[in-house]
Automatic annotation (TrEMBL):
It holds the Pfam family HTH_18. This is AraC-like DNA-binding protein. GO terms for molecular function: DNA-binding transcription factor activity; sequence-specific DNA binding. Keywords: DNA-binding, Transcription, Transcription regulation. InterPro entries: Homeodomain-like_sf (IPR009057), HTH_AraC (IPR018060), HTH_AraC-typ_CS (IPR018062), Tscrpt_reg_AraC-type_HTH (IPR020449). PANTHER family: HTH-TYPE TRANSCRIPTIONAL REGULATOR NIMR. It comes from the Bacteria. Gene3D superfamilies: Homeodomain-like.
Amino acid sequence: MSPKAYSFVRTFPREPPRDLRVDQHYLLCASDGALRLEADGQAWLLPPARAALIEAGRAIRVSIPQPVTTASVLFDPAFVPAPPSALTVFDLSPLARALLHECGSHGTTEEPYAETLFGALAAVTWRLAESPSPVVVPAGRSPELRDAITLTEQRLGEHISFEQIAYAVGLAPRSLARRFEDETGMTWRAVLRRMRVLRAIEELAAGDTPITTVAFGVGYTSLSAFNAAFRQLTGRTPTDYRASFTNG
């Protein structure tokens, strides 16, 4: 008989995007490095401070921009209720990380005590999943908008302009602005700001690069502007955010 839940740790090299679908509820976390997820025209980054809860049978696209170690749990749908939504990305609390670590030391629910631990982990993370993280970037639907978003991401550290991006994808700036509004509900500048914060999160998760270096590397010329944008989207300063997944 298959276990009601089991935990596993795996290390992956850098990999291009690939589709993933599992037949159990999937709590996906990175214990070192970061993962990128994409589904329904949106994209998320998963450093160690965050997790994704994916409903059984839900298809997602996963990419690994740098080597990563994952610490994940699969739950039998008969063991736990359905997640609050088909896919949710949220910040892990210290309690959730402690339970995740403890479940990893047991591996499966074969022992009664371990079954209680996995049940507690599900209860805590299911509750956290009711408050999704706001740091999400639209992926776009039309080829032109997807190209514009990709090009913007590739040039985050440069002094780029919206007009340059528009002409590079073969659209007039006004036409591209309408695409952003129609397909994402956001302006290009708002998407750019989110991309810069996501790239900064990725850099913060990757090592101990000074925060000023990270800020300039993602395109900010002012540390105060970077801190303000970061705090607006995450609710924390870059220093506090880094501490949230390097401590505990």
